[in-house]
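Checklist before submission:
- one chain only
- standard amino acids only
- sequence pasted in full

Submission:
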Amino acid sequence: MKKLALLVYPEFSLQEVMNLSRLFRWNYNTMTEVISSDKSPVKSEEGISVLPEKTTDDFDVSDYSCLILPGCSDFTEVFKDKKLFSFLNRFHQNNDLPIGAICSGPLLLARSGVLTGKQWTASIFMDFFDFFPFLERENYVVSPIVVSGNIVTAQGNNFNGFAVAMAHLLGFECPDHIFSGHIDSWKKEDYMHYLPKEAVAQTRSMFGISDSETEYEK
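Returned file contents:
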């Protein structure tokens, strides 16, 4: 099973990609693998440190179903990361791998040339078009989500829609309202879950519970 590659860098936004990671894990049996320029711990904008499993040098496109770029609250540091931009430049004019970028993440794609000629959106100040010549104003779309070929870009506050759009891009069935949190009606059986028959013995074995025991002894 291919994995979801999550590219991280200083001050990346964890909350913008957590629902996407959860959706892919539990609905599509796709695990997330964290990659970065090196294997040093990377602290998110929320103050949570993550340890990359692979570096961009180790990246083998055949191992992944997609590449995800979160936003970051301060991209001055990541803009200095030549190794990261060299990695992203591999996907310039390469439409084989689905790529998703949210909030300020699309700026990294734009600087790498990946968004050249493609429609895109991002959470940016309009002044940035005067600051950064690599941003194509004519292709910028004021929209929560933009899908252009193999690339999904999204505004930072639309992280749920971003997850759904990535699922659709990869061909998965996914209701648009999957993250609504609204429950019209419910019954007790909805919250009473039982193991499949074939999993009962396996679970007992995992916890060292004999057939005669009814509960796990601490």
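Reviewer check: The chain has one domain: 3-169.
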